[in-house]
Amino acid sequence: MKKKILIAILIVIVIAIAVIGYFVLNDMIQEGKLKKEIIDLNQLSNAENIDMDAINDRLNRTVTTGDYAIVENSCKSYLRENFNNIIQIAEILNDEKLTTLLTVENYQSDGKNFTESKNYITTTRTILEDCKTKYTEFLTEDKAMSYINNKGLDSYYIDLYKKEFVGDMDSIPKDNTVENSIDEIIEILNTSEEVLNLLSENQDTWEIQGENIAFSNKELSNKYDELINSL
């Protein structure tokens, strides 16, 4: 009888060890997949020629399971929203319409009230200001951590997210290149708006002659030239 009890105990111990070993091994595999996915995304994001198709393929998949999948998807949600914001900024900065607002062609097609052009300026400026705020927020640790907080995870997984993905973001030297570029475009929009307001408020003092704009009022002509030269 004692032998039977001993054998039963040994079997339970072996099964327990096997189960524990399985979960430990599975955790190691899942954590390895998570770390590799983060490394691969980091390399794709910092490549000289960024391949957004390859990045999106990574962002739209989940290679881990369980709590590791929650960590993985938190990382990718942050990156996805960050990328979308940056792409929106880039699209506006490269919008050809910015360079045509103060052309004779636009004066002829949208003058003399410039309703469409003014609406474009107002909308674009609002979007840029919002994108700039978001861009700055995305570079903070608080913003990055907000994607993992309140997910019901043990501290181990939250610490893993911070260590492998977030790091010490607040200690990274500040680069204002993007914000400065946005500010420059907003300034161009503001000046363009001043020019169009000047023209729409003084419709009887100017006309298009060939490829140029001509004024009958010297003071308004000087003001127009001053604004154009400030761009």
List its salient traits.
single chain, 231 residues, mainly alpha, two-stranded antiparallel ribbon, 9 helices, 3% strand, elongated
Describe this structure in words.
- Strands 1-2 form a two-stranded antiparallel sheet.
- Residues 14-24 have low confidence and may be disordered.
- The radius of gyration is 29 Å and the shape is elongated.
- The chain is built from nine helices and two strands; from the N terminus they run H-H-H-H-H-H-H-H-E-E-H.
- It has helices spanning 2-45, 52-59, 66-93, 104-110, 115-138, 141-145, 155-166, 177-201, 218-229, and strands spanning 206-209, 212-215.
- The relative contact order is 0.09.
- Strand 1 (206-209) and strand 2 form a beta hairpin.
- With 231 residues, the chain is mainly alpha-helical.
- It starts with a helix and ends with a helix.
- Helix 3 (66-93) runs antiparallel to helix 5 (115-138) and helix 5 packs antiparallel against helix 8 (177-201).
Structure summary, number of beta strands: 2
**Biggest pleated-sheet summary:** 2 strands, antiparallel
The 3D shape can be described as elongated
N-end to C-end Cα span = 97 Å
Major sheet: arrangement of strands: 1-2
- Unreliable parts: 14-24
Number of helices: 9
Structural class: mainly alpha
Q: Tell me the helix content.
A: over 70%
Order of helices and strands: HHHHHHHHEEH
Strand content: under 5%
